[in-house]
Amino acid sequence: MKNEIALHHPDAQGLLMAHAVDACVHCGFCLPACPTYQVLGDEMDSPRGRIILMKEVLEGGLPLFEATPHLDRCLGCVGCVTACPSGVPYGELITSFRGWSEPQRSRPVIQRLTRAAVLTMLPRPALFRVGANVGRFAKPLAPLLPQALRAPLDLLPNTVQPAQPLPEFTPAQGVRRGRVSFLSGCAQQVLTPNFNAATVRVLSRNGVEVLIPPAQGCCGAAAMHTGARPLALEQAWRNLNAFAPDEVDAIVSNAAGCGAGLKEYPMLLAGEGAANEVRAETLAAKVRDISVYLAELSADGGLEPFMPTSRPIKVAYHDACHLAHAQGVKAEPRALIRSIPGVTLAEVRQGDLCCGSAGTYNIEQPDLANQLGDLKAKNVIATGADYVVSGNVGCHTQLQSHLARLGSPIKVLHTIELLDLAYRGEL
Q1: Core-most of 81, 149, 245, 399, by most CB within 10 Å?
Q2: DSSP letters along 8-35, please?
Q3: Could you tell me if residue 359 is left (phi over 0), alpha (psi between -120 and 50 degrees) or otherwise beta?
Q4: Is 409 contained in some domain?
Q5: How far apart are CA 151 and CA 206, in angstroms?
Q6: Residues 128, 85: one domain?
Q7: Is residue 373 a part of any domain in this protein?
Q8: CA distances from 126 to 7, 120, 121 (A)
Q9: What is the mean pLDDT of each successive set of 10 residues along the chain, which is 427 residues long?
């Protein structure tokens, strides 16, 4: 799509956006892959429509406020990127556009406060734990509150699990096969602490030393995708200083959104100096989802054998968008699940369609998030599975919430929790 964005925005971020718009050929392959287009049926709520809107705003032909309702409804799931035959980097476009446009926007007070609260609490597990515990007691009052306050309360579990602190170093069991740094995440330390504990156990069992750099922090994905670019840069600098890519085989993440966030550092740091761009590229190249790293170990000598299940078990696998679409990881988690004796893998209908979690989307677009969550839960139930597993804390929370609303007994696990249970003979 021809454009004049670079003339109006000649900086590095502007050139990224110009390149993305230029790659679009209006083919429409993205429409069926877009969750909001599927629900709303509006061209302007599709990737193709949003690209046109962003182009017009960036070129000065359309006021920002006319485009934002449609752009705000974008989940950022990048399902369109997988579907696009022209290789449009839509994720780079929408993220860079939000970073450019957010300082120019005027939001209602309650929305500004909610955003500030989320971006302040999520990166700080201790503070988030306090907030989650307070929020549990406020849940009965949720129906009386404004939607902006009701939505985050609906996402909180009825009980907050005890913290599971992990050591900075966990040795390999048996012969050492690898050495990794582990990104421990933010929200999952509070909402699903067993994700990290299970990850460390499985890695150690397979001969991998695990380092958890104490100076690490939030990956910055939530800030990046909500347009809080200065905060995202601050969080990226912290991790660039905390991790030493050259000293490990990989930087492992067990959260799809966080792993994808680290891989977006080259885009985020474009224009921040050549040396910093190289640092970002070096770190991003070492990032591996836990399923990918285990698959690499499996291909290079195999994994420790899993114990057979006590009975035949059917497991449905949900593709987290920032694993399947943003990182192109689909085969590895499925192969790991199939390798457990006694487990049958079930595919979920419309499995690559977003569940509606999408970072802060549940809070900012609760109606659409609920529609997508309900659809996903019904498709999971239709598999007849005993468990549904995924590779992202947001998906886990969304699936758990919507399955419970529908009265389903299907248990929700992270892929690594399923493997951990198989090693311990608890399936």
Answers
A1: 399
A2: H--SHHHHHHHHHHHH-----TTGGG-H
A3: left
A4: yes
A5: 41
A6: no
A7: yes
A8: 46, 11, 9
A9: 91 94 95 95 96 97 96 96 96 96 91 89 89 79 71 75 91 97 93 95 98 96 95 97 97 97 96 95 98 96 95 97 96 97 96 90 90 96 98 94 95 98 96
